[in-house]
Write a structure and sequence with these properties.
globular; mainly beta; 191 residues
Amino acid sequence: MKKEIKVEVSARHAHLTKQDLEALFGEGYELSVLKDLSQIGQFASPDTIKLVGPKGELEHVRVLGPCRSNTQIEISRTDSYHLGVMAPLRLSGKIIGSGAIKLVGPKGELELNDGLIVPKRHVHMNPDQVLEYGVTEGENVSIEIEGPRSLTFNEVEVRVHEDFETAVHLDTDEANAAGYSGDQTAFLITK
């Protein structure tokens, strides 16, 4: 079964704890909203940090809000090679034993022992949308993107929360491989 679905490209970004935010930006620092994201309550802030790895650096890594209970940095596999850190492929929140990286902000820096991941592609849905699409939490589905570089992505995990809006999240490497520019039609494929 194929149903049309929204695709969002998730560029490299950082989720910070309040403590780590203050270590990087100064005591009492608060995130402000540059742009609301499609998932309810989530936003891009105007703030950025630098990632420093054994082989390279990435500047202007966007900080997303609000603050979280664990600091997590999400990058693409290409970014991982550039930094010289083999970040594991993980679902968001699964940071134990993940990659280490140095974070640099305008007021300080810190070394993360865990927290650097390449995010596993996934689709956000709320409970009503799960019923509409006929899928279940944790199920792996496929996403087909039409266009000059048509591509089907398998192993796209369904994540369910009452605040989610249906959208597939691909990283920049995946979107580039499919030639995705936002104009193509994408379909969720279930068995």
